[in-house]
Amino acid sequence: MSLSQAKNSSANVQLDPFYEKFKGSFTSCMRWDDLTVLWETLKQHANLNWYIYAIGEPVPDSPASKKELILFITEMDKLLHIEHGEDYCGIVYADNKNAPTFIKIYDPNNLGVSCGFSHNPPLPGWVLSVIPPKPLEDKSVLSQQRKRWWQRLWNK
Fold first, then answer.
1. Which strands form 51-54's sheet, in the order they lie side by side?
2. Can you give the pTM of this predicted structure?
3. I want to staple 93 with a disulfide (CB 3.0 to 4.6 A). Which of 26, 63, 108, 131 is the partner?
4. Domain that holds residue 50
5. In a domain, 101, yes or no
6. 128 pLDDT more than 80
């Protein structure tokens, strides 16, 4: 089920917990220092069975290991600093920065209107969640560069 299908389902049917959380309230890591603190917090909560989901790739069926989570955090931090050439972050959102259970990371190369109002905001590039993810349909095509980055990350 796509997010749009979930939103359009009968009002009597409760949304899946993943979709509910995805549509919930989030706080941005506006400064790079905020992101560093979030990464450190995630490392401290690495035992929560985090799922790492790259939108446009198959949904993971099992949580990442602690080693995989730390690798993802390290590589994602590098990617964001290199490709998001701003003096602020502003493209990583957490449900709770002090005790996160759901994080959205927007792709610096596909921002559209990620902040502010839009009827069709872009989906994040990646989701970290302690809730098993469900498919999110993205109408844009995942670039070959991004696919290679994702594959290289897990083929180390």
1. 27-28, 92-94, 102-105, 126-129, 51-54
2. 0.80
3. 26
4. 16-154
5. yes
6. yes
Rounded CA-CA distance 53/57 in Å is 7
Maximum mean pLDDT: which of 35-49, 58-72, 133-147: 58-72
Amino acid at 3: L
Please state the domain count of the chain.
Answer: 1
Q: Express each pLDDT in 68-118 by its tens digit.
A: 999 999 999 998 988 877 777 888 999 999 999 999 999 887 665 544 455
Q: State phi, psi for 97 to the nearest 5 degrees.
A: -70, -25
**First-residue to last-residue Cα distance in the chain:** 32
- The answer for residues whose C-beta is within 8 angstroms of residue 103's C-beta and 6 or more apart is 38, 42, 92, 93, 94, 95, 127, 128, 129
Amino acid identity of residue 129, one-letter, is: S
Helix count and strand count (H, E) for the chain: 5, 5
Amino acid at 75: E
Backbone conformation region of residue 152, classed left if phi is above 0, alpha if psi is from -120 to 50, else beta:
alpha
Q: Are strands 51-54 and 92-94 parallel, antiparallel or unpaired?
A: unpaired
Q: Is residue 47 part of a domain?
A: yes
In a domain, 97, yes or no: yes
